[in-house]
Write a structure and sequence with these properties.
By secondary structure, this protein is of the alpha/beta class. Helix content is 18%, strand content 22%. Strands 10-11-9-12-13-14 form a six-stranded mixed beta sheet, with helices on both faces. It has a five-stranded mixed beta sheet with strand order 3-1-8-5-6. A three-stranded mixed beta sheet has the order 4-2-7, with no helix packed on it.
Length: 355
């Protein structure tokens, strides 16, 4: 199961308390205070791991708690620091804090996280973004561990040579957070259901998405890698098909539109044969409208138009009508013709090199 949005409860470890101790050894009956400091609490750290592709692990393990620091000891021995809690996430993960005053149902320790959509406020604008993690190996400290308390050896002075004062450790930071994955790819395939996006991705790369003759075959984003003879590599993301009203969440809507937000270029895949009973010109107009309504900046990015299913009889006539309305370069491709794919790869690489 592909999970790209989860809510977690993070808690850093508390610092260990300092010790109150006095040295008592042979020939040293009045050795003075020797209570050591407490250990620092562990922190909750997010690590970007390119080998992780979704957030399903934290759907069923929403509590991420670091260890507490240990107590200070006698003979000026400091307590051991708490072990950090490492949260591994895929590149492209956005971390947001859920303000305490709007958290609805807190997750009890040991319980499974509630459904993703029900676990965050309806108005996502109230979330406080704290990190946008895109580079492999990048680290971000989500919650800092508490400082360890000082032992009584730190309070010795000329006027107080036998202090009994010591400090308890500080509490670690805590909070509830949302982790949201936005896939990173050079380009994103955008089109209606059954436009042939998954088939195109399987022919351009070695990705093997599910392909079937019914709508919404693709239920989760799929990223393929196009390899060129000069060892260049280009990544392409395939998202579920869009329908009218996708910007309002209709269909799979917002759930997957965010996966093309980071794409440098969009590839509009148009069923030029109109095999689903729609006009290709209307499909193109509606797709552009949905992208613009979802995010205006996304609609302003460079894009290519791919005329798919050109091997069907109605496609040639529809392409002529399409060209009269849309004054842009159109790359025709067919199911059994590799010439169109080679042209698409060449244009695609050239366009990305200029961005």
């Amino acid at each position: 199961m592909f999970v790209d949005r989860v809510r977690i409860v993070a808690r850093a470890g508390n610092g260990g308390p300092g010790a109150c101790s006095f040295l008592r050894e042979k020939n040293m009956p009045d050795g003075g205070p020797d209570g050591g400091n407490g250990g620092r609490g562990g922190s909750v750290v997010i690590l970007v791991d390119p080998h992780v592709n979704n957030l399903i692990r934290y759907r069923y393990a929403p509590h991420q708690f670091a260890k507490n620091g240990q107590n200070g000891g006698k003979k000026q021995m400091s307590g051991r620091s708490g072990v950090d809690c490492i949260i591994t996430v895929p590149p492209g993960t956005v971390v947001s804090r859920i303000p305490d005053e709007i958290v609805r149902a807190p997750i009890e320790e040991g319980a499974r996280a509630p459904d993703d959509l029900a676990s965050v406020p309806e108005d996502l604008s109230v979330l406080e973004p704290v990190a946008d993690l895109v580079k492999a190996g990048e680290k971000f400290v989500l919650c800092n561990g508490g400082r360890g308390g000082r032992g009584n050896m730190n309070f010795k002075s000329s006027t107080n040579q036998a202090p009994r004062r010591y400090e308890n450790g500080e509490e670690g930071e805590r909070g509830q957070f949302q982790l949201e994955l936005k896939s990173i790819a050079d380009a994103g395939l955008v089109g209606y259901p059954n436009a042939g996006k998954s088939t195109l991705l399987s022919r351009l790369s070695k990705a093997r998405p599910k392909i079937a003759p019914y709508p919404f075959t693709t239920l989760e984003p799929m990223i393929g890698v196009i390899e060129y003879p000069d060892f260049a590599r280009v990544t392409v993301a395939d998202i579920p098909g869009l329908i009218e009203g996708a910007h309002e969440g209709i269909g799979l809507g917002h759930e997957f539109l965010r996966h093309i937000e980071r794409c440098r270029m969009l590839l509009f895949v148009i069923d030029m044969a109109g095999s689903e009973g729609r006009d290709p010109r209307d499909d193109y107009t509606q797709l552009r409208t949905e992208i613009s309504l979802y995010q205006k900046e996304l609609a302003e990015r460079p894009y290519l138009i791919i005329a798919n299913k050109m091997d069907l009889p109605e496609a040639a006539e529809n392409l002529k009508k399409f060209k009269r309305r849309v004054r842009r370069e159109i790359i025709p491709i067919a199911g059994d013709d590799d010439a169109g794919l080679d042209q698409l790869k060449a244009v695609f690489k050239k366009e990305l090199a200029t961005l």
